[in-house]
C-alpha cells in the first residue's frame, strides 16, 4: 500500500456538488466543521488520508475558505483529540481560546477538537496545502492543562524538534513508495513519539515524556545528524557520540534497540552508498568522475568505494553508471 489513500478530488465531481462533498469528506476523515466559501463555483480541493495506529494523517489542498468548529458541533460529537497542522503552501490563521496563530509555509500549530476554533485560509493564486495529524489526547503522555496553553500558537517547523516533525509529515504527504500494512503501526509509533517530544520541548515537560519516547527521539535526531554530515570524512561512531554528548556504548545500545539490528557504522556506510548511487544515476552529473562522487559522500579512496559499492549492489560504480546510461539511451531511442 502507499502511505496515503486518495479519498477526494473536487475535479472528479460536478461544480455544483463540490462544496457539499467537501463538507462530507472532511467530517468523515477529520472532524465536523462549518464552512464559508465565497466563490463556490471556483472551489477546488483534494484530500488524502491514512490511519497509522491511532494517528490519523490527512494531506489536504483547498481554495480560500473559512472553517469553524462551533460549540454545537462539539456537543454533538467530541472525540477529544489534538490536531497538529503543518502548512505546506499558502497562508492560514487559526483562532482558538482567544489566541491567534498567523501561519505560513513551514509553520506548525496544535489545536484541540474539544474547544471551538476558526481557521481562515487565504490562497488567492490557487490552492493552499497542509498536513493535519489528529491523535487522541489519551495517547499524549503530557498534562492536558499544559498542552492547552500552546493551542493556536505559531511554532516553527524549520529547525530542531519541529524540523524533524515537519520533515516526517512532509515525507508522509509526498512519498509514493509502497508499504506493508504492518509498517503503518510502526510509522504511527514514530509519529506519536515525535509529536510528544515536540510538545514537551515547547512546554518544557521532558521529564513527563516516557523514557522510551525520549530514546526514540534521540535516535531520530542522531539519524538526522548523520544524514546532514555524510560528506564529512571525519564522520564516525565516535564523532556522532561526541556531538550528542553520549558514550560510544550508549550510542551502540541506542542503535541496537532502534535500528532493527543495523550498527551505526553500517548505517553510515549504507546512507553514503545510497547517496552515491543516486548521483551516479543522475544524468545532470554524468560528466562528474566517479572518484569525485565518491569523495562527495566521504569515500576518499576510490578502491574502498568500489569495493563497498560492489559488495552492496553486486556491480562496480562505473558499470552501474554505464548500465544506467545504456538504459536511458535505449529509452530515448
CATH class of the largest domain: Mainly Beta
The shape, in one word, is: globular
Helix-strand string: EHEEEEHEEEEEEHEHHHHHHHHH
Report the β-strand fraction as a percent range.
15-25%
CATH architecture of the largest domain: Sandwich
CATH topology of the largest domain: Jelly Rolls
Q: Estimate nothing, just give the exact number of structural domains.
A: 2
Strand neighbour order, sheet with most strands: 1-3-4-11-6-9-12
Low-confidence segments = none
Distance between the termini: 33 Å
Q: Which superfamily, in CATH terms, is the homologous superfamily of the largest domain?
A: Jelly Rolls
Provide the fold topology.
Layout: E1 5-9, H1 18-29, E2 34-36, E3 45-52, E4 55-62, E5 65-69, H2 71-76, E6 81-89, E7 91-96, E8 99-103, E9 107-112, E10 117-122, E11 128-136, H3 144-148, E12 155-156, H4 160-174, H5 181-203, H6 211-228, H7 237-243, H8 248-258, H9 264-280, H10 290-296, H11 302-313, H12 317-332
Antiparallel strand pairs: 1-3, 2-5, 3-4, 4-11, 5-10, 6-9, 6-11, 7-8, 7-10, 9-12
